[in-house]
Structures
1.
Amino acid sequence: MGSTLILLTMVLTASSCYSAGTKDDLAADSSLAMEPAEVKLSLLIAGDLMQHMPQIKAAQQSDGSYNYDECFAGIKDEVESADVAIANFETTLAGAPYSGFPKFSAPDDFLSGARGAGFDIMLTANNHCVDTHRKGLERTLAMMDSMGVYHLGTYRNISEREKNYPFLIEKDGLRIVLLNFTYGTNGLPVPEPCYVNLMDTTEIAADLEKAKGMNPDVIIALPHWGIEYQTLPSKAQKDMAKWLLEHGVDHIIGGHPHVAQPIELLNNKQNLIAWSMGNVVSNQSKPNTYGGYMVRLEFTKNDTLTVLSDHNYSLYWVSRPPDNGYRHGYRILPIDYPDTLLTAKEKTLRSAIRGSMRRLMKEHGKGEIKEYSLPSSL
């Protein structure tokens, strides 16, 4: 997160909130500050954070601990440059012993690595959120709370959901409401008394009514949807997107297919749909699964008018052993990371996914949304 004061608000009552500003910000008497004539807020939204067993083993240190700093170093500058950064946390933190596919449970250090890279909010409604049952769901949320990571999508009980959802981000009067829900939980039952937001239109309609009552300037839906490994949105995705826009959602940023799907800017820039951002990091090896994009949205509010003042995306890919000659573990890198710092195998793999994603965006993207160069922290 940048140095700008952001109020990340989990609504406890109609008027209360939690603040995630700096210590100096919190020490100031905000009641004396005048609301600025123009407010800008930038959001960075990334795809699926996954942890297969080879990733966990690669992160293990000689003393038995785990460290993910190197994994996130290549995108740290970009993530931290946004006012608020969001990703889908597609594993659980149930504690040792750790496990990968099909029932994920990662070291707590994976979350702390993502937090250290600048991610502020985790989406937890996805098809793996109950992989480790009640213990995993509840412990994941407890660890996020302990590390100062905000979250939405799963809850310890219905009362917690009613207090904290929909999720509000507020900065100097600019209010953005987030919704997160999943198509399912891989057939596993949601353990009582826990609650998972499902892609049920009756429930989402009620959530949208509550969201509208929060006086938002923008409503963003973050669905976990689609068909795995398909680079174009399914009919079900398109139908659901149409329904969401008709019921008051402004922008839709999706995940789950584990590959990039195109971005569409519609209705005179009033609605942006990113069908799937792909994986942030994983050990998947199917075509197009070792890369993706991050969406960056900037909103500007003047008096009562709020507009999407900037919108773009950055591409990245994942280098991993043995492709990188065992010199490093898993590293998320900018798509144009210098060739001179890559092995021959890395260059071949990066070239393939870079060409594939850029063709996808060119041939199937809609509207004036541009790729921008991703700065590297390395």
2.
Amino acid sequence: MAAATAGSKIAAQPAGRVRGYDHIALPMQNTEAMLAFYRGLGLEVRESANACSVYIGEQMINFHRPAAWQSGTFTLRAPAAKPPCGDLCFVWEGTPAALAGMLERARAKIEEGPVARQGGRKKAASSVYVRDPDGNLLEFMIYS
């Protein structure tokens, strides 16, 4: 590693920083319909007693089962969160036609789109909006 010389600028590296999301947690009402829907999107689903985890790459959504989020002893959640309370945006890495086909196979009705949007990647994109069985809004964004 090269030594710093007088007058050179070295960017300070922060001791710690937020890198991104690991997971999001949402309450769910219609467990069987929700699991079938997310499996229909081609996503991996794992079930436990209190939650169903849906994996999207290295991130996941934990859907808390009704018995868990409705319990007075389950406090590690937003107290006012009730289905539907999610507004999620996914990045689609395929063609618009492939997205339409996947959504049709999952029986997801397109509410809006494709429409031009500016995404979190600070680039132009095209978005399609659907709802899952609990009514959460899902956006599928295709970057150009």
3.
Amino acid sequence: MKLNHLIKLGSFGISTVLFQRKKPILGTIIVTDKCNLNCKHCSVNNHNAVIHPYEQIKQEMEFLYKKGIRILFFCGGETLLWRSENKTLRDLVIEAKDMGFYIVNIVTNGTQKIDLPEADLILLSLDGDREHHNIIRGNTYDVIMKNIDEATSDNICLYMAINQINKSCIQQVCDVAKDKMNIRAVSFNFHTPYPETLDLALSVYEKQQCCDKITELIHREYPIFNLKSAFDYIVHNNFPTPCYQCVVMENGKLSICGRCIDVPGLCEKCGYFFAAEYTLIFSGKIKVMVDMLKTYLRYI
């Protein structure tokens, strides 16, 4: 990350805390809800299977930039399926960088070829060892490992949603992150229990066990992108919601925090670590701020 960008983000954080502002800094654009998988825990794929056109995505990028968004994510569906007017996701990443976004990340299930050296991070879903990942996502583990090995840059961050199926696999995913040269780190979430996926949710006790394991691995210097100073808040879901500093744009609709904002009662059961981390930072938790600074400097 460039020093001047770091200073500006720091200034944004300080002013947000001091003046209790709700202005967003992180935005996500959903480029498509089309996906080639049907994962057990997912509630957002293939509702319409629409690939949004380039001109619409460009307008949404410009809109978010004018609102002050400087950290941008491209998501799906499966994000790397996006094609429009002879443009690919790589073109969007380059254009976002040229537009002035400080950090541009993408989220993918890893089943497509990975050629995005311009992205700051490629958040790639890996949900356990081969057995447990394949139970959740179909027979895709070996394809993903091959695509990781053949990726054109070392900007991959594994992205694991911990649930009842894979809660025993934290160590195995961390081992992959540590051993593969193209992987920079691993980031965890807990399963957020959308109405049709309630059986995958973890209890408070199970969440604590998982966070204890992640903390142990952080102390053992595994490359983990989460903030251990936020774990107690995350386990007990006692962080402020929604996160006003994050927004999502999908097909012209702007939502605060995430697409789950419209589901009654779901905010109180949020499993997204980053949402907790951001709300804690912008509510003035000094320990979490310091933890984020060190983590972001190391991995971005």
